[in-house]
Specification:
Blueprint: H1 6-18, H2 22-27, E1 31-36, E2 46-49, E3 66-71, H3 72-77, H4 82-100, H5 105-110
Helix pairs in contact: 1-4
């Protein structure tokens, strides 16, 4: 386990988001990415809550943004080095964004995410 400073971890999440291809980022719609510094369920690295883009219909309007939460404590608990944290943050961010685009866990695992 490694302990990463709160602001440093938030910066890792920001860098992971900034590393997305611009076209992919432009396709994301009505989604907020947040960091939960403490708490969360053991082993839960990230969580997508919302209506995936593939499930939105013409009646989709006036709803709160979808949420992607990245859990600092859980990620730090499975990493030994700062480089491992950076890579796990990146993998977790991409995994949860995959859910936003309607990709399920089995397919994300097939893709290595």
């Amino acid at each position: 386990m490694i302990d990463v400073d709160d602001s440093q971890f938030e910066d890792m999440v920001k860098r992971a988001l900034d590393s997305l291809p611009p076209k992919l980022g432009a396709e994301m719609a009505n989604v907020a990415v947040t960091v939960q510094l403490e708490g969360g369920r053991p082993g839960l690295l990230g969580l997508y809550q919302g209506i995936p883009l593939t499930k939105r219909t013409t009646t989709y309007a006036g709803v709160l943004p979808d949420r992607i939460t990245i859990y600092r404590r859980a990620i730090c608990a499975i990493c030994s080095t700062e480089d491992e944290v950076i890579e796990q943050v990146r993998r977790t961010v991409i995994h949860e964004i995959g859910h936003h685009f309607g990709i399920g866990d089995p397919r994300l695992r097939e893709l290595g995410w």
